[in-house]
Structure prediction request, 227 residues.
Amino acid sequence: MISIDSIYQKVLAVANKEQRGYITPQEFNLFANQAQMDIFEQYFYDLNQFLSMLGNDTLYADMVDILEEKIEVFHTLDTISGSNNEFDLPNDYYRLAQIRSNGVEVEKLTHKKLLNAINSPLTTPTLSRPAYYVKDTRIIAFPDTINSIDVNYIRKPIKVNWTYVVLNKKALYNSSALDLQDFELHVSEEVDLVLKILTLAGISTGTELYTTASTEDKKNVQQEKLK
Prediction:
């Protein structure tokens, strides 16, 4: 977890230093959530890149371990009940990892391959050899007698929220608010979060923060990959 107040204060400090005006709590929350999703989605792009370069290189193996550790916190297991062998994916779903039915792994197929399997007596799905495909936000499982599945998936980060009270027309941090939400990203992402939020603030206001933060952001990403 990364304190949302810590990030907000750093963003405000840089904005004030550059004399670029005040970033409101509403603007900050909007930019902060976009920045968190950008970094979160980058994990998967980078993981694919490093996996493709693995070979015997321990540097890439180390980077894979680091990225998998960062993603691990978002792994979730949920039991879902359905009807007519259809199951709604959880609202916070981002990527599926594995589906099981009565302890048996359910094989993922394309719709076309599943139809072909169903039409063949030798390959038609059974309770001991189940299969599924994804349609929009639903899982369609076979055989159609399956009414419950265990879904192992990677969820999206919870939306952050810097909570506050207004005193003398000034927003003050409220750490006891029930809807307060810190960042769920790995603590190593603190610098990236600040830079990305400043970049987004620069885009919205047309200031030089965009150029400055973008340059620093790219430099930081390259340094992270070389570690």
